[in-house]
Amino acid sequence: MIDKKFIGKKLPPFHAKAEAGQLRFFAKATAETNPVYFDEAAARDAGHPALPLPPTFLFSLEFEQPDKSWRDEMGIQVARILHGEQSFTYHRLAYAGDTLSFESHVADIYDKKGGALSFVVRETRVTNQNREHVADLRSVLVHRNG
After folding, report:
1. Which stretch of DSSP H or E encloses residue 122?
2. 111 vs 86, 119, 143, CA distance in Å?
3. How far is the CA of 135 from the CAs of 9, 61, 74, 142, in angstroms?
4. How far apart are the C-alpha atoms of 110 and 1, rounded to whole Å?
5. pLDDT tens digits, 35-76
6. Run of H or E residues at 137
7. What is the C-alpha to C-alpha distance for residues 93 and 112, in angstroms, rounded to an integer?
8. d(CA 141, CA 83)
9. pLDDT value at position 63?
10. What is the three-class DSSP state of 5?
11. Is the dihedral of CA 6, 7, 10, 15 positive or negative?
12. What is the pLDDT of residues 71-91, one digit of tens each?
């Protein structure tokens, strides 16, 4: 089981740049058809300064967190995890070219199935290069114990 002493643990913050090529690739991979996610002229015509991030793209950027040592410290074994849940609360749009900052903490840890499964809830605040609040992310990682 994952020790509940890690509730409240702050994870290493990191920055990621939203690149237009990544946004287009993600939009295509998720079957997005709105041209504002592919065509900069269409994005500008719709009132955007650049290509906006497609919905859920922030999860892809968060997944690229370079320092994953917190998982080892908590006893999380990659071969034993599943992605359980993800939610997003958006406060403003982010765009291609933005540098986004991710600040995360462990919000909760709980067990199910008599301790066979541990659930680690991570909450992340995302801000842009102007320190404007872009979004709050919440993810649940499921760890199979034993």
Report:
1. strand 117-127
2. 18, 6, 9
3. 20, 13, 26, 23
4. 9
5. 999 999 999 999 999 999 998 999 989 878 888 888 999 999
6. strand 133-144
7. 36
8. 5
9. 79
10. helix
11. positive
12. 999 999 999 999 999 999 999
The widest CA-to-CA distance across the chain, in whole angstroms, is: 55
* Amino acid symbol at 30: T
The H helix count followed by the E strand count for the chain is 4, 5
Give all domains of the chain, ordered by start, each with its CATH number: 4-18+53-144 (3.10.129.10)
C-alpha atoms less than 13 angstroms from C-alpha of 28 in its C-beta half-sphere: 8
Q: How far apart are CA 51 and CA 36, in angstroms?
A: 6
**Six-digit token string for 24:** 């287009």
Q: What is the mean pLDDT of the chain?
A: 94
What is the residue type of 74?
M
Closest listed residue to residue 62, CA positions, set 8, 105, 126, 130: 126
| Per-residue model confidence as pLDDT tens digits over 106-119 | 999 999 999 999 99
**Scanning the structure block, which residue is given the tokens 């982010």?**
94
Instruction: Check pLDDT > 90 for residue 33.
Output: yes
Please give the Cα distance from 143 to 57 (Å, whole number): 24
DSSP label of 66: S
